[in-house]
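Work Package 3 (structural annotation) set out to generate three-dimensional models for the target panel prioritized at the project kickoff. During this period the team completed the workflow that converts sequence records into discrete structure tokens, so that structures can be stored uniformly alongside our sequence database. As a representative example, we reproduce one entry of 227 residues exactly as it appears in the project archive.
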Amino acid sequence: IEGFDGKKCLISESDVDFFQERFFNVWATIPESDRRSIETHWQQFSPHTFRVELQGDWWGDSRAIGSEERRQLNFRWEICGFKMDDDSLEALIAHEMAHVFQRSIGFVGKTKDELCGTIAFPAPKFSGSPLRQDAIIEHHADETVLRWGYDWVKPWAFMRRFYDHTVDGFVRLKKSRKPDPSYKKAMHARLENRYDCEVGLEAMRKHFQQLSRDARSPRPSMDEALL
């Protein structure tokens, strides 16, 4: 895990230590079978290393605050290091790790028909609904984050509360928005582009509400997960 200073964002050693603790907290919550799959994926590279970069100057998509590559995770530290609470940061880390998990199980590169069988939604009565191709990857990642015990909406709710997104990127608000409306609007924005029809959106919203209820179980301790 390394930090790279930017023009407007310096990354200290304590920032790296803080992030490392959050990262290993997430690693501890991932079920053992999923961790083994991720480790097997990493081991195919030589040398057998996996990098995490905290970037002071963001080199990725202007709309993103984190990204995943084949053997590397990147985090936009000017945002992730600003007021982001531990739960939101860990949920973001879990989301990017879910994309690593997808690679480890051969999820990336499959067709829409192949992918639809890998997610818990759509339910049979919606099997013919126009779930968009690019939405399935994110949908599966969100389901994985929930399965690992994290609130999949929190990183986006944080962004909604403290930032506006413009053509020039994210602009920090002078006055933050209220948390509850921010959460609801973040959830809606996260889901609204996945279906072409409102009935699909409403069904998906209920689906994630049920998954959230089902996912509320004690997380393993770090010591237990790292044995």
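DSSP finds ten helices and six strands in the chain.
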